Amino acid sequence: MGTVRTLISCATNFGWALHQLHVKNAFLHGDLHEEVYMEIPPGFSKPETSRKVCKLRKSLYGLKQSPRAWFDRFRRAVCNMGYKQCNGDHTIFYQHSNCQITILAVYVDDIIITGDDDVEISRLKKSLSKEFEVKDLGQLKYFLGIEIARSPKGIVLSQRKYALDLLSDTSMLGCRPASTPIDQNHKLCAESGEPVDKEKYQRLVGRLIYLCHTRPDISYAVSVVSRYMHDPRSGHLEAVYRILRYLKGNPGRGLWFKKNGHLNIDGYCDADWGSCLDDRRSTSGYCVFVGGNWVSWRSKKQPVVSKSTAEAEYRAISQGLSEMLWVRNLLSELKVIRKDPLRLWCDNKSAISIANNPVQHDRTKHVEIDRFFIKEKLDDGIIRISYVSSIEQVADCLTKGLSVKECNSACDKMGMIDIYHPS
């Protein structure tokens, strides 16, 4: 989804059209390279065929090889049309022609086409229709449960229907709304309450995880409740219902992609030191802007215990830098950006000093690999790490619970709006 949001930011800034196609019975187009046999389907068996089996010539739904066989067939077909497969994301194909570009992104049987070469886009649609049974859905409006609304001012991604269906299935449509997704001073731990229905809890959290594709404001809260999927307690379930009550207040809120006229890559990273009460591991949070639009983010507990705030922040810098480099390599391969230095903002001066100081410090021995990784990119001029005050830190909402005022401010910084809210 980070790739899809990046392409939508490009389309917004460059004024590209977004087209959507759907491949009917996609898995049935796959070619099998192995010998696969199946039992004769019920209703077709006869006494004389009781000891016989069927040999498959094409892949079927339910076969483990079907997704791989389908994508291999699709890849070969698109490459034969003159397109190249992107190394940064293998589901992206592109073609340059006369200083124009056409980009195709595929997710199983759903296809997005964008670019500034209208003639090539029309030719590509016809070629795909000859190769597969394809339905042209016109302009991109609904993709993988995400609603896309476009106007001259920009594009809005939201999951309003998905959120309302979730509230309806949990009988929370009439609940009292909450002003924040998680309590500011929550004390959730592994022993918070009595055991609850594990399957129900996992199903709820799984649906919330998918909702995070357009709702970064609940990412931290969802990451916290995701830690206890193996042994959920009543306190954890209450935190899940708190997120649902928050969604009740603004189910149509989503990401707004504005036309800023550039594709500069900026990033923010932050860490909350020793925030997990179970193992005292820190929480890292980072976000990446492409063309002034929020396209990628993450809130996750760090894999090891940090001995200082500087160490925790430094690990967050490393994770944020890795994501920014991936976005940069993706856009560089598509040849839609200049190779300007990346800008990463951090609110910890000690971590910034360690990154810029070539002298080995005793307190950096536990992050030595991260230190050399970041230093190498600084020396090559690929990245610039700058200080930002905690008040202006955009990634703050990905590492801790916020107050009502701070939560609303964070949503504004992320570019989140609710187009369904009455004016």
- Summing up helix and strand content along with how strands pair, one would put the structural category as alpha+beta
Number of strands: 18
| First and last CA, distance | 30 Å
Order of helices and strands: HEEEHEEEEHEEEEHHHHEEEEHEHHEHE
- The order of strands across the largest sheet is 4-5-6-7-1-8
Helix content: 25-40%
Unreliable stretches:
none
Q: Summarize the biggest pleated sheet.
A: 6 strands, antiparallel
Radius of gyration, Cα only, in angstroms?
24 Å
Number of structural domains? 3
Q: Round the mean pLDDT to the nearest integer and report it.
A: 88
What best-fitting shape do the alpha-carbon axes yield? globular
Counting H and I runs of at least 4 residues, what is the number of helices? 11
β-sheet strand percentage: 15-25%
What does this structure look like?
With 423 residues, this protein is of the alpha+beta class. It folds into three domains: 2-29 and 64-144, Alpha-Beta Plaits (2-Layer Sandwich); 147-259 and 400-423, no CATH class; 260-388, Ribonuclease H-like superfamily/Ribonuclease H (Nucleotidyltransferase, domain 5, 2-Layer Sandwich). 35% of the residues lie in helices and 23% in strands. The chain contains eleven helices and 18 strands. The protein has a six-stranded antiparallel sheet, with helices on both faces. The longest helix has 26 residues, at 309-334. The mean pLDDT is 88.
